[in-house]
Amino acid sequence: MIECVVDAGCTLGEGPVWDPGAALLYWIDIKQRRLHAYRPSGRHHDSWDLPDQPGALALQAGGGLVLALADGLAGFDPASGRVAKWVDPEPDLLGNRLNDGTTDRRGRFWFGSMDDHERDRTGALYRFDPDRTVHRVLTGVGIPNSLAFSPAGDVMYFAETLDRIIHAFDYDQATGAASGRRVFATIEGCYPDGSTVDTEGCLWNAQWGGHRVVRYAPDGSVDRIVEMPVENPTSCAFGGEALDILFVTSARMHLATDESGFTTGAVHIADGGWTT
User: Shortest CA distance to 88 belongs to which of 107, 106, 111, 61?
Assistant: First the structure.
């Protein structure tokens, strides 16, 4: 069953993250420069204006959020709305912005950067360690997406959206080193966007232009396709009390078809009794 739970009108909704302690979902609208939160209990929706385009977010262990903004990483306090800038990994690349990110099982924050005009491969892939040092891991990136880790933390996923390829890496949790890059899945007819992983080690990928979220088995084969009522689903995350509800964000920009009658740019849930 697919249901719209927040018709937020996002231009480019992205980066859903479930906060189990607060029992709410965070996500961002990159182009409107907003952070959103939705609490299923009571169906309460909040949002905050941000100083720049956000590309990703993550929960901080001590409370609050990490934001990957266009001009660098920052801390965010939802109670006060305060943004505290930390570090800009690309002060010389003014046409770039940060895009997509997630944490590994040890609390490192992985994120990418990209040309905001989606033309040049000036982006990179970075690792942000708990001591607040930033490490550039890959260069020549077009549009980074689909950052996710296997349940055991020994496999890292990363999509080069322009190439329509999701890659897998061997991941050393002790050092944060990614190696053995290989093709995990190749997408035809649409583009890989944001992903999440379930407890069976399957990767769920939202596919831009495909009206769908695809579940890939650990060997890269297609296990399941969830059809969505929007052309451009952008990312997904499991949430809810039992972590069995798939939240899916979407975008209104770059539509190939008229979706005026649909809740494009909303957050939908796919409630199918998924194994998470």
Answer: 111
- State mean pLDDT over 96-104: 97
Distances (CA, A) of 105 to 28, 53, 153, 155, 207: 23, 26, 6, 11, 25
User: Could you report the per-residue pLDDT of 216-234, keeping only the tens digit for each?
Assistant: 999 999 999 999 999 999 9
Q: What is the pLDDT of residues 136-161, one digit of tens each?
A: 999 999 999 999 999 999 999 999 99
Active-site pick, 46, 129, 193, 258: 193
Entry pTM: 0.95
Residue spans of the domains in the chain: they are 2-270
Q: What is the DSSP letter of 12?
A: B
Integer Cα distance of 25 and 127 in angstroms: 24
77 is catalytic: no
CB environment 161-180: b (16+ within 10 A), e (fewer): bbbbbbbbbebeeeebebee
CATH level 2 (architecture), domain 2-270: 6 Propeller (2.120)
Task: Give phi and psi for 115, each to the nearest 5.
Answer: -70, 125
